[in-house]
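A reminder from the course coordinator: this example appears on the midterm review sheet, so study it carefully.

Given structure:
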C-alpha cells in the first residue's frame, strides 16, 4: 500500500512539473484578461499608425475639411473598437473596412453635402505616371487640392483607394463598381493630374 501511495505521489509531482514547464504554459487557455489586453494593444498600434492616413484619405477622396475628416475618422475608429475582436486580422482588410466606415460617417455627419456631378470626360492616353509621382507632385504645390477638386468624384475616390495600395478588384468590391470601370477611372485621373500638376509646377 505504501508503495502505491509513493508511486501515486511521484506521479502527481511529475504531472505538476509538466503542467508548469514553459512549453505547457504556452498551451494553457488564454484568460479573458490577457486576451483583452492583447486586443487593446493591437488596436492602439493600429490607431497610431492609421489615424492620420485615414484623415488624409477623406481629405483627398472627398475634399473634406481637416476638421470634418478628423471627426469622421474618429467615429470610424470608435466603431472599429466595438467590433475589433471580430474584424479580420489582415491589415489591408482592416484598413478597407475603416475607410468604408469613415466614408459613411463623413456623409452622415454632413447631411447637407451633395456629390458633385460631372459629365464623363473623354479617354486620354496613359502617360505612365505612377502613384508615387502623383503624391510627389501634389506635395510640391499648394495648388494640389484645387487640382484634385477638378476631378470627377468617382475618379477621385478610385484614385485615392489606388494610392492606398488596393487592387482594382478590391476597389471595385469596396465602391460597388465593376473592375473595368475602376481601371478606366484611375487611368483618367492619373492622366488628368499628370497634365494639370505639371502645368502648375511649370508656372511656379
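Designed residues:
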Amino acid at each position: 500500500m505504501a508503495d502505491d501511495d509513493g508511486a501515486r505521489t511521484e506521479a502527481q509531482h511529475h504531472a505538476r512539473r509538466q503542467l508548469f514547464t514553459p512549453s505547457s504554459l504556452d498551451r494553457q487557455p488564454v484568460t479573458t484578461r490577457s486576451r483583452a489586453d492583447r486586443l487593446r494593444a493591437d488596436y492602439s498600434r493600429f490607431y497610431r499608425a492609421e489615424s492620420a492616413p485615414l484623415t488624409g484619405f477623406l481629405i483627398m477622396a472627398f475634399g473634406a475639411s481637416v476638421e470634418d475628416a478628423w471627426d469622421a475618422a474618429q467615429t470610424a475608429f470608435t466603431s472599429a473598437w466595438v467590433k475589433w475582436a471580430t474584424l479580420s486580422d489582415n491589415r489591408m482588410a482592416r484598413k478597407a473596412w475603416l475607410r468604408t466606415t469613415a466614408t459613411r460617417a463623413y456623409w452622415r455627419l454632413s447631411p447637407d453635402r451633395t456629390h458633385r456631378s460631372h459629365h464623363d470626360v473623354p479617354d486620354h492616353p496613359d502617360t505612365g505616371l505612377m502613384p508615387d509621382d502623383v503624391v510627389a507632385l501634389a506635395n510640391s504645390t499648394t495648388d494640389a487640392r484645387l487640382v484634385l477638386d477638378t476631378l470627377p468624384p468617382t475618379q477621385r475616390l478610385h484614385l485615392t483607394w489606388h494610392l492606398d495600395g488596393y487592387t482594382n478588384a478590391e476597389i471595385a468590391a469596396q465602391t460597388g463598381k465593376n473592375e473595368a470601370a475602376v481601371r478606366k477611372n484611375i487611368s483618367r485621373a492619373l492622366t488628368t493630374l499628370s497634365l494639370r500638376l505639371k502645368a502648375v509646377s511649370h508656372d511656379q
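Residues 32-62 form the longest helix (31 residues). The CA atoms of residues 11 and 90 lie 45 Å apart.
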